[in-house]
Task: structure prediction
Amino acid sequence: MEIVNIDAMQAKRALITGITGQDGSYLAEWLVGKGYAVYGIVRRVALADPERRLSRLRNVLPNIQLHAGSLESYASLHNVVEQVRPDECYHLAAQSFVTYSFDDEFSTFNTNINGTHYLLAAIKGVVPGCRVYFAGSSEMFGKAEEVPQNESTRFHPRSSYGISKVAGFHLTSNYREAYGMYACSGILFNHESPRRGYEFVTRKITAAVAAINAGRSQELRLGNLEARRDWGHSRDYVEAMWHMLQQPTPDDYVIATGKDHSVRDFVELAFSHVGLDYRQYVTTDPAFFRPAEVNVLCGDASKAKRAFGWSHRVEFEDLVREMVDADCRALATAQNSAFL
Ligand code: NDP
Ligand code: GDR
Result:
């Protein structure tokens, strides 16, 4: 998997953790397009099974360099940081599935809190001038006391995932304040795409719509249909990560569309896009309800707009249609739809 055709002597060097994920893949494409030498940290198993585990990176594999490392190992992160000596580091790797964080709080904290701490400490020790992006989340607001949420809204996380992101946010601010590092947190609201993992509700819905439409399935079991989220497109959101690291001073920013919709709205639109009535296929199943739910999240991204002119381009309706169309196409051609 060693890649050769980047001019690492000339280009700015960006290191991405979580490069195999939804955001990592779009961010790698964006940075390669900007002329960066792009390096990624992946788990060793990914290098042994590139067809499956690196499928989202198919567009950029020849232009990036991958290093094995794990968030659970300070030594492995330190080694990679020392080899790459990045100018910018985008820390996206995480146990990112909120539901799973209720099943295993311990590994969620270990990966998300210790992993963030190890990475910050390695960068401070090796390349303290490196600019660092931390993937914060709207889940930090959780049971929010105001709508929409902005950078001043108080955190009230409702899951160990949310708690781990609050800890990562504070670690990031503390490295900025205590050691003068250029370290920022993006507080990103839900963002989706045809590359979204199947465990998240949007992809679960669009994959099911494609299967039902193709006659391969008859039912979709979901949890809370009334939860409301502010859904944007991942490709728009990774651009904001880059902008945050190009500012004169480091800061934290909310990234969101400013519009919220219910899970039911998403379901209704996804089914109606292929001419189906969701009420004939969708049932609710207590197994998919969470012990503590976040009922409504909606973000105010006006600070990012003022600072670097960011606003979302892809609207909710277009996002839903794009995801349904991609899953229908993938099923028709029996391709690996995670890549689309
Ligand atoms: P994904 O779940 O698609 O990707 C997660 C990435 O983290 C994968 O590359 C995964 O690698 C890697 N990873 C997980 N555990 C480890 C580990 N122990 N060691 C090394 N790598 C690991 O997430 P997204 O791309 O959607 O999100 C990116 C980040 O942004 C995450 O931190 C997420 O919490 C955060 N976020 C996401 C939002 C969203 O709506 N998408 C909103 C707000 C924040 P592997 O492929 O090997 O599993
Ligand atoms: P979320 O995304 O928890 O917001 O975290 P997810 O798509 O899992 O849930 C969104 C909402 O849908 C409700 N829901 C269901 N969710 C899932 N996964 N499966 C179901 O069957 C189902 N039925 C209803 C949930 O209860 C919830 O209210 C995502 C992740 O990307 C995080 O990493 C990120 O930080 C936040 O978005 C912002």
The longest helix spans residues 105-126. The longest strand covers residues 131-137. The two ends are 22 Å apart (CA to CA). The pocket of NDP (ligand 1) is lined by residues 18, 20-24, 43, 46, 53, 70-72, 92-96, 111, 135, 137, 188, 190-191, 197 (CB under 6 Å).
